[in-house]
Amino acid sequence: MAVNAVEPHTIEENCEVPVESSAAVLQHYGVVPATGLSDAAALERLKQFGENRIRKSKGQSALTIFTRQFQGTVVILLIVAASISYVSHEVIQAIGIISAVVINAVIGFFAEWKAKISLENLEALAGPTAQVLRGGNLREIAAQIVVPGDIVFLDAGARVPADLRLIDTTSLSIDESPMTGESVPVYKSVEADCESGNEAFLAWQGTLVVSGRGVGVVVATGEETRLGRLGKLLTTVEQQRTPLEVGLEGLGKQLTVLISVMCVLLMVIGIWHHENVWIMIQTSIALAVAAIPEGMPVVATLALAVGTQRMVKAKALIRQLSAVETLGCTTVICSDKTGTLTENQMTVTELVCLKRHLKISGNGYEPKGIISEHGKEISMTDATVMLETLRAAALCNDAKLENHGDVGWHVHGDPTEGALITAAGKAGLCKDELLRDFPRVAEICFDLTRKRMSTLHRDSDDKYHLYVKGSPEAVLTQINNLSDAERQWIKGKNEELAARGLRVLAVAKRIFDKQPDELTTETVEIDLEFLGLVGMSDRPRPEVAAAIENCKRAGIKVIMVTGDHPTTAGAIAGELGLIKAEAKGDPILTGAELSQMNSSELRLALRQANVLARVTPELKLAVVNGLQSDGEIVAMTGDGVNDAPALRQANIGIAMGGSGTALAREASSMVITDDNFATVVKAVRQGRIIYDNIRKSIAYLLTASVASVICVLGCVLFDLGLAFTPLQLLWLNLIMHVFPGLGIVLQRGSSSVMNRPPRDKDESLIGGKTRIQILIRSVLTSVTVLAVLKLHLLTGGAAIKLSTVGLAALSLVLLLQAWVWAAPDAGEPKNKKFRLNWPMIINTGISFALLMVAIYVPPMQVILQTSFLSATEMLMLVAVSFVPALISSFISSCTDGRLNAVFRQ
Fold it and tell me: Of the given ranges (101-115, 341-355, 448-462), which has the lowest mean pLDDT?
């Protein structure tokens, strides 16, 4: 009845919950822990607070994503050109232009559709069910109907279904790495320590119970949980436009202005020459078709798509095509530590016994390694105390080490305890065999007050061994077999290991002739015998140091962003070469320090910092914003829920596919499938190559377009008539231009791309030096073609063949100009071993074959208005086409160095 008297108690949704006191929380929610809420009260609160789920933001429809593909300036120009062609009854021409637009839109649509971000994975993290006390009965209910005030029971392996205020714990430890980034599970307690700000009395939705048991009262559900607030933060982040998108859009606007001016100029010239108005309209259409590089969006999109396939082979999955290009200009990589720079596996590396300091090699949980002293492997027969220490650590332990062929060695339970079992295995001690010889008969569970755990074991002589492990401070106070000098030596070693970022545990024992009558901390955890100190850490991945060095050489700054303690973060950063051992100029900034800075102070601090420790999810987002406001192109790597908002905000978000959470993968632009930071560097290299190739390809396409425009204008100025029909120019743009352009973007690139700094984000896609080259090569091309046309008429060539000669000459000259553009930049080292450029060979062959189809296949002759050319005529055109290519190459080799110097100033 008392419960029923309490339950009508109403809760104000905006009222602050006094979580520091468990009694106050229970009173606030009007719940008795022995019985929980009644079904009626739970239903009422479900109506008041809603379901325990994170509401999905309304995603973009397929139609919206598809429609967006038609918004670029170049695409709009193509649509306008198609419309004019259709109105002018040039239906085939209109269909050709629209085909180019649709092909580009389809490619872009499928890429974006796969990359669409949703928040559905947040619900999966909340857990499908929960153990809840309702009306005095323990029930398993759907996690989505858990309400504030529910009494929830937690066991090892359970996912916390909502934010809880713990009211009872037994050796409860929870893996909070997806929320905080810390690699070590957090032990929980009921008592609050307001002065230290410790939140050990709270359990967060979406975290995983590693060991022990607990009971808590729900204080927040749905979007009011910490996980829910992260989800809302993720939806407010706007995605950044990539430099390539900005560059293409700017180029499109410039082309719009240029085409408008040229069309007006052409009309003026035509009127001056007393040309027929309708002929001038047709010529203007031809000019517009010639000026618009229809292949540009197609080639750029296909280049990025091909780049994604190359990334897959390098174990990097691209979720957004634009990410390939963005990697090429990345200036800063903000990397999460746990699971990204490190293996996310605790490993024992140091063992300190009295007067001995031993090293233990090996990685991960595989019980394979060498125990050495002063660089020499020790003999097990000469290591009695060490063996006793490792035996105690393996027995005073609730974890289990297993080996499965598909996943390898892994731990069930606390990773710290798993590391101890692994270390014992390296000394030839198997936990299962030890338990057969020393079965456990009793235990005193770990708690935050004692900061130690004890287990009692019986041996074959019916003696009882008490093994104790815990924090050195907590264990050493119970030791009585140490002299003052020995105690000071041990404390010094503890400080030495801790200063290097290792987590240190002390191990002790006590032997009883018979089983103690009472097993309490006061009766048995006294007069202990010291065995040793065990130092462990989450080791860096072996290949990461070299990857970071590659980043430095490429002018890319790497910043470690972690929730771990500064000492731990600094130790790992030192091993990886992010900071120097005694680096005063490489500060380690903490989240507390960052939160006190204004935006300008934050930008200045981030210029100097290489390590950020104790960083919250909100601060990670602020760090990315601060770097971006300082002009940096930011790549953010991460694997936890807490990384998702920053992954979305970054210019490119890079999630870890193996250890990463589903939400982190959904919020990213790229997923590293092998969780290898070195793969990020490979992806950056590929991004630079793809951008270089896209730039060269677009430069070639613009060369082709400008040359075509000059040819059209030249034909009018020199009274050569309409030598090129609009359909012939469309054939050139869509077929003859696209394949050589594609050949350029498919090249493997130079090996030296990682030996230069990132390009400036404000650098024009087509810079001043490239524009000069485009102009020179366009003039050489068009002059050659116009000369061929004039010579054809002067030598009595048939007028009906004029457009065919022009089409063939322009196509052949441009095919060879594509090879000039495909050549390595000045200063790039030439490969010692000659390699055939197969992408260019194949695509040039396709283009040449299509030219033959246009000239010699009767149906195409009708459509394109072409005529048959003799073998002699074709051979002469091929020979002439080499002239502008050779001149272009010669001019480039003579002027590239000087042009580079000019445009660097």
Answer: 101-115
CB–CB of 447/189 below 8 Å? yes
For residue 25, give the CATH number of its domain: 2.70.150.10
Identify the CATH number of the domain in which residue 671 sits. 3.40.50.1000
Spatial separation of the C-alpha atoms in residues 187 and 447, rounded to whole Å:
8
Q: Any bridge partners for residue 359, and if so which?
A: 350, 372
Collapsing DSSP states into helix, strand and coil, what is residue 333? strand
Q: Which helix H or strand E contains 485, and what residues bound it?
A: helix 484-499
Tokens 């009921």 locate to 190
Q: Which residue has the tokens 């309304």?
A: 58
List of long-range contacts for 253-256, beta carbons under 8 Å, 24+ apart: 253/73, 255/73, 255/74, 255/77, 255/291, 255/292, 255/293, 256/73, 256/77
Give Cβ neighbours of residue 87 (< 8 Å, ≥ 6 apart): none
CB 715 within 8 A of CB 815: no
- Residues 384-415 have pLDDT tens digits of 999 999 999 999 998 888 887 666 788 888 88
In the chain, the number of structural domains is: 4
pLDDT value of residue 732: 80
3-state secondary structure of 88: coil
In a domain, 353, yes or no: yes
CATH number for the domain spanning 846: value is 1.20.1110.10
Task: Read off the pLDDT of residues 65-85 as tens digits, 9 standing for 90 and up.
Answer: 677 667 666 567 667 767 876
Let me know if residue 483 belongs to a domain.
yes
Are 149 and 378 in contact by the 8 Å Cβ rule? The answer is no
CATH of the domain at 433: 3.40.1110.10
| Pair (692, 797) in one structural domain | yes
In terms of domains, do 180 and 148 share one?
Answer: yes
- Give residue-wise pLDDT tens across range 623-664: 999 999 999 999 998 776 667 788 888 988 888 776 666 567
**Residue 591 in contact with residue 522, Cβ under 8 Å?**
no
DSSP structure class, residue 193: B
Q: Which of 150, 163, 175, 336 is catalytic?
A: 336
Question: Residue 402 phi/psi, 5° resolution?
Answer: -130, 160
**Radius of gyration (C-alpha) of the chain in whole angstroms:** 36
* For residue 814, pLDDT beyond 80: yes
Element (H, E) at 653: strand 652-656
Assessment of whether the complete model's pTM goes beyond 0.90: no
**12 and 145 fall within a common domain:** yes
**How far apart, in whole angstroms, are the C-alpha atoms of residue 545 and residue 572?**
10
C-alpha 823/C-alpha 696 separation (Å) is: 9
Q: Are 418 and 408 in contact (CB under 8 A)?
A: no
Identify which has the larger pLDDT, 414 or 511.
511
pLDDT tens for each residue of 134-172: 988 888 898 889 999 999 999 877 889 999 999 998 888
Choosing from 638, 654, 681, the residue where a domain stops is: 681
Together in a domain, 183 and 290:
no
Q: Whole-angstrom Cα distance, residue 353 to residue 42?
A: 56
Question: What span, in angstroms and rounded, lies between the C-alpha atoms of 720 and 792?
Answer: 11
Residue 447: strand, helix, or coil: strand
673 and 702 inside one domain: no
Residue 538's pLDDT is 86
Is 336 known to be catalytic?
yes
Check whether residue 657 and residue 738 sit in a common domain.
Answer: no
- The verdict on residue 117 lying in a domain is no
What type of residue is 592?
A: A
Q: Are residues 12 and 93 in the same domain?
A: no
How many Å apart are CA 730 and CA 231, to the nearest integer? 49
Residue 386 and residue 349 share a domain: yes
Domain boundary among 207, 235, 263: 235
Residue 352's alpha-carbon distances to 397, 417, 535, 655, in angstroms, are: 19, 17, 8, 38
Instruction: Please indicate, yes or no, if residue 324 is contained in any of the structural domains.
Output: no
| pLDDT tens, position by position, 448-492 | 778 899 999 999 999 999 999 999 999 999 998 899 999 999 999
Range of the domain at 847: 66-111+240-315+682-748+763-826+834-904
